[in-house]
Amino acid sequence: MTAYLIYSKKEAQRNAWFINELISQANKRSVIMTLLIEEELTPALSGGAFVLLCNGRVLGAADFAVVRAQNYILSHHLELMGMRVFNSSRVSRVCGDKMLTYQLALSLNLPVMDTIFVKKNSPFPMSPFFPCVLKPIDGKGGEKVFLARDPSEYEKLLPHFAGRDMLIQKCASRVGRDTRVYVMGKRILCSFTRVSDTDFRSNFCLGGRAVPHTLSAEEHIAVQKLCDALEPDFVGVDFVYDFERAVFNEVEDVVGSRMVYANTDINVAGEYIDYILSEM
Fold it and tell me: Which of 15, 33, 43, 236 could be bridged to 252 by S-S, CB 3.0 to 4.6 A?
């Protein structure tokens, strides 16, 4: 069996250890997995067929592809070539757009913080609530997420979002704390509360510390509803806390595993390859 593993150039460098582990675990299970760099790939149509170019050279289809880049067009193209893609292009599309994710969550009757969508190059409205969080619609890992405590701070932060779709969101009452739930298929692997004493963002990659978390009944139901609706393969579901109530925050499509390896004995790469083979 053959497989493609796809990362952006930047993320491939940052995740070299996990990439090697995925390839090693695949090889142990008789799967030949090849790393491809997103920026070198071009979806194309040739002779009435869907083809994939790598630096201009046509690649044949693999049995499946693990896409660790938020590129739903590429993922959909691979699916049209006949490959099973982990996560699917639909998961990539919805989770790569925070507004689509919030729309899905609210349609499932999950609590979300009040949110305003601002289209790129549109006039910025004044936030109706403070403190508020400003974030790009396609960001991940806390990238370009800012806290504005008052109108003056808000105005100073707006240049960061010039030419980008963005969200203005009411800030949850508990800043610097959230919960990440790791889900593979519809099975919860583990969950952690992430806490930061120095930043309103609690991301592990930004220095937040992690402690094991036991899901409440409400959190468990919310995760199950999201998984039933999205049918993801491997994602992280995040909650923030507003006056102790768990509020849905996002689904991370290309979810990092550093927190799991640092705090548990779970072999995420091995678990993921086993899951994929069970799906194949």
Answer: 236
Cα–Cα nearest to 91, from 226, 260, 259? 226
Q: What stretch of H or E contains 246?
A: strand 245-252
Dist CA 71 CA 69 (whole Å): 6
Distance separating alpha carbons of residues 3 and 251, to the nearest angstrom: 25
Supply the pTM of this predicted model.
0.91
**Amino acid symbol at 241:** Y
Domains and CATH numbers, the chain: 2-86 (3.40.50.20), 115-170 (3.30.1490.20), 173-279 (3.30.470.20)
Sheet holding 146-148, edge to edge: 115-118, 166-170, 132-136, 146-148
For residues 219 and 227, the answer to whether their CB atoms sit within 8 Å is no
Residue 156: its pLDDT value, please? 95
